[in-house]
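Need C-alpha cells for this chain, all 673 residues.
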Amino acid sequence: MAIVKMQKLSIVASKKHRKAILEALQKTGAMEMRTESIEDPELIHMDTDGARTQFEKTADAFDKALAALNGAAPQKDPSAGLFGEKDQVSQADYDRVIENRENLVADANDILKLVRERAECQGTIAKDQNQIAGLQPWMNLGIPMNSTGTGRTTIFIGTIPEALDEAGLYAAASMGLTDPAPVTGEILSSSPEGTYITVVALNSVADTVSQNLRNIGFSRSATASSYVPKDAAEILEGDIKDQEDRILLIGTEISDFADRREDFRIASDYFRTRAEKYRLLGKIPQTEHAFFIEGWVTAACAPKITKLLTEKFDAYVENEDKREDEVEPTVLKNNPFSRNMEGVLESYGLPQHGRVDPTFIMSFFYVWFFGMMLSDAGYGIVMAIGCAIILAKHKRLAEGTKKFLTMFFWCGLSTTFWGFMYGGFFGDAIDVVAKTFFGYTGDGILKPLWFDPMGNPMRLLIFCMLFGCIHLFTGLGIKGYEYLRDKDIVGFFCDIVAWYAFLLGLILMLLPSELFQGISGMTFNFSPAMKQVSKWMTIIGMLVILVMSARGKKNWGLRIALGAYDIYGVTSWLSDVLSYSRLLALGLATGVIASVVNMMASMFGGGVVGAILFIIIFIFGHILNLAINALGAYVHTNRLQYVEFFGKFYDGGGIAFKPFTTANKYTEIKEDM
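Here are the C-alpha cells for all 673 residues:
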C-alpha cells in the first residue's frame, strides 16, 4: 500500500562509546549502516579481522558441540526445520550465560576433543577391518606371515595369478628338479584376484624353485606380520572391540554435557553477534578521539534513535539529505492481509521511493487467480486448515515463513470458494462415493453454485479473459496514477487515457461481431449510437497514440514512425489477454485429474476390499494432484503478476532494508513484562 519514508542519520560520537553505541544499535535493529560513503584520507580504520575471526570460530565451535550433543543425546531443536522457532530466553538467563562464557567455551572445546577422539577410534576401526579383510585369504597358514625359512629350508608365501591345485603347484615349482624333488606346496585359498600359496623347498634347490615360481607369476605377500594370520586377526578384532567400547564411553561423556545445551545456544548467538559487531567496527572511520557513522532508519524511528544516542551517549546526530547518486532502502507497509504477499513482490524487485507499491492491489488479484487455477473446495479446505494449524502451533515462526503460510491460507480459502462455484470437492468424490458404496443413481449431489467449467469451457474462457482485461487495465491505471501524482497531465492523457480509449473501443467493436458470438456463444446487441461511440473511441485513441506517444521527438517523421510502432504494441495486449487462458487450463487440469483419481479408486467396486483400496488410491492420488497443481497455480499466478500485470507499469529497482541487528540463530531474548 505504501513505501515507508526513510531518514538518513549522520552520527559523530566519542570513541570511548563506540562499542556501547554499536551494541545499542544492534539491539534495536533499526538502522542500516552505510560506512563506505564516508571518505577522508585522515580517517583511520581498526583492524578487527583477528577478533572477528576468533568470534566466528568460537560460535562455530558451539555449533559443532551442539551437533555432537544432538547425536549423543538427541533432543528436538526448536530452531531447526522448515517451521523452526527460536527459543525465548530471559534477560537474566542471557546475562548469566555471558558471565559464564569462558567456562562454556572450555566445555565446548572438551566436547570437540571427544569428537576428535571418536573420529580417531573410528579411523582405527576402519584400518583394523581392512587388515582383517587382507588376512582372510591367509587364514589356513599355520606360520607367521613374515616367515622366510629355517636353517635348511626356504619358505615362499605369496600369490600367483592362475588357478592351480596342489599337484599343479608342485609340478610348476619342481620343474627341472629330479623327482622326487625336495619341494612341498599348499594352496591356502583361491579368489578372482589369484591363488594364495605357500611353498617350502630345501636351500639347495631354493634358487631353482624361486625361478620356477617367478615363471608362473609368483609375488610375495606384502603383509609382513610376525603373527600367524588367525592370531593376528584375533588381536585386531580385540582392538576393534576396545575402540567400540571407547566410542560408547565417549558418547556417554558427551551426553553428560546435555544440561549445557541451552547455554551453548545462547553463547553461540552471543559470539556470532559479536562477530557481526566487529565486522562493522572494522569499517567505521574514526580519528584518535571520535568515530563516524551514516545510515538509514525509518522516519518514525529517527527521533527515538536520535534521543537514545544523544541522551545516553552524548553523541551528535544529524538528519541528512540523500545524495543525488544514493538510493535509500525500501521498507513496505501494508495491511495485515496484503503484507503476506510482499514476498511475491520482493522476489521480483522492490519498488524505489517515489514509485507505487502495488502489493495491496496485487494481493487481491493474486488470491483470486490462485483460487481459480486450483479450484477444488476439498484441496482448498486442506490447504487452509493445514496452514492455520501450523500458524496456530508455531507462534514464533520466522517472518518470511509466517507470511508465506498466511498467503497460502488465504489462497486456500479462495480455492475453496472457486471449488464450490465450479462444483468440485476432491473432483467428483461425493458423487463417486455415493454411487459406488451407497447405490446412488441421481444426477449429482454437489451442484456448482455458478457453472461446471468442464461442461462449458468456452464460457469460463470468456470470463478468464474478462478478469485478465480488468487486471491489465488496473496495471495501466496505476501508471496513470503516477502520471497524475507527478502532475504530468499531458502524459496521463496521451499514454493512459488514449490507450484506454483505443483498447475499450476495440473491445466494444469486437463484442457484437459474428466472430465473437461464434466463439463465445454470447450475443451483444449494441445500439447504432453505441457502435459509433466505440468506433470513434478507437480512432481518436489511435490518433493520439500515433501523434503523441513519441512527443519528445522533434522530427515528425520519426515521431509518427514511433507512434505507429506503439500502436502495433496492441498485439502484445492481445497476447497478454490470451495468457489468462491459463486460469481455465489449470482449473480444468485439477478437476480432470481429480476425477480420474476417483474413477481409478472406484474400479474395485463396493465392499470392504473395495473401500480399503478406494481409500489408499484416493489419498495417494489426491495428495499428488494437490501437490502438482498447487505448485502450478503458484508458478502461474506469479507469472501473471510478473509478466502481464507488472509489465504495464512496474520496474522495481529498490534496495531491501538490511538493518544492523543481532545474528541470533537459536534464541531470542524475551521481552520483560
